[in-house]
Specification:
Blueprint (H helix, E strand, L loop, with lengths): L5 H27 L4 H21 L12 H24 L2 H8 L2 H13 L5 H18 L8 H23 L5 H23 L5 H27 L2 H4 L6 H12 L6 H24 L34
């Protein structure tokens, strides 16, 4: 029956997950109007540690936390730190729909980065989709028509570094423990943001501290739901659900921030989404990619601020 369909279950779980993530991003935008992004990231990491401890208690593997691939782990950690700071900043200063439209370029960039890092062969169909998708990003940015800001640069940086972190996971995920992939970015964020914190700190009223706790819980819950969705349904069904965030962004922007997406943002976001959908469907249904770096990646940029991987099958192996 339809209600028992694994793909339907996967789609519903992923829709719920990305709705939670969109709400998580709204809270970041609210707090970003009052506090430095470094302070937000620091406390997000701090309040995520109890959740990490719960996950570690379930990890029965007898092994150390020394990475098998230290240089790749370091590169991914740095990419995750940059992604978290720049994405949080972009959400703080840009309209939600613009930020999402730019971040939606991440799957397209995963396709490009899979060539040098994974040895992936990208044929002209996917190259065409990538080029069209990046044109969509330019439509959103409309260089020459509107002044580009630091927020636009931050969103693009988050998309690039998020793609890099995702591709590195695909390269080393079968060899590295999930605990290593999870803890290194969080610890690095905690240390680096903690060093910056004294220069940017503003006292937090209890209600804002509570919102930071909600950020940590929502990121944790969203990550687990995405993993559950991929376990339940096919990647071709689950992966496109990330684009539902643009609907949430539009609704939240109008309700809470008096933001109404203009025509360029709507058209550009549509181009990016269609390009991403084309690549997802071609990889998952046509089976033209041996490693399928895009559809087997969780498609929510790794920020190193909260647990977003599971200690049970957190990284799929190629061909799954």
């Amino acid at each position: 029956m339809l209600q028992n369909s694994p793909n339907l279950r996967g789609a519903l779980l992923s829709l719920l997950a990305f709705g939670i993530f969109a709400t998580h991003d709204v809270i970041i935008k609210v707090l970003g109007g009052s506090y430095s992004v470094f302070q937000i990231v620091f406390f997000s990491v701090l309040l995520s540690f109890p959740l990490v401890m719960l996950m570690l208690m379930r990890d029965t593997a007898r092994a150390t936390l020394i990475p098998v691939h230290p240089w790749w782990t370091a590169a991914r950690t740095l990419a995750a730190i940059i992604t978290g700071s720049t994405a949080f900043y972009a959400f703080s200063v840009l309209p939600l729909t613009q930020t999402y439209a730019i971040l939606f370029a991440t799957p397209l960039l995963i396709t490009v980065l899979s060539i040098p890092i994974l040895g992936e062969r990208v044929r002209w169909h996917r190259w065409a989709a990538v080029i069209v998708g990046l044109v969509g990003v330019l439509v959103v940015l409309r260089p020459g028509g509107e002044a580009l800001t630091l927020g636009h640069l931050a969103a693009m940086t988050a998309a690039v570094c998020g793609a890099l972190a995702s591709v590195i996971v695909r390269k080393i995920g079968r060899d590295e423990r999930s605990a290593v992939l999870l803890l290194y970015p969080m610890m690095a964020n905690f240390v680096i943001m903690g060093a910056i914190l004294p220069f940017v700190y503003k006292p937090l009223p209890i209600e804002h501290f509570g919102l930071l706790g909600v950020i940590a819980v929502f990121a944790f819950a969203g990550g687990l739901l995405v993993i559950a969705a991929y376990k339940a349904g096919d990647a071709a069904v689950v992966a496109p659900m990330q684009y539902s965030q643009i609907v949430w962004a539009t609704v939240y922007g109008m309700l809470f921030f008096d933001e109404f997406p203009d025509l360029a943002t709507i058209v550009g976001a549509g181009i990016v989404i269609l390009s991403g959908l084309y690549i997802v469907l071609r990889e998952s249904i046509a089976g033209v990619s041996a490693t399928r770096p895009m559809t087997s990646t969780r498609l929510r940029p790794e920020t190193g601020t909260s647990p977003r991987s599971s200690f049970e099958n957190s990284v799929q192996t190629p061909g799954e």
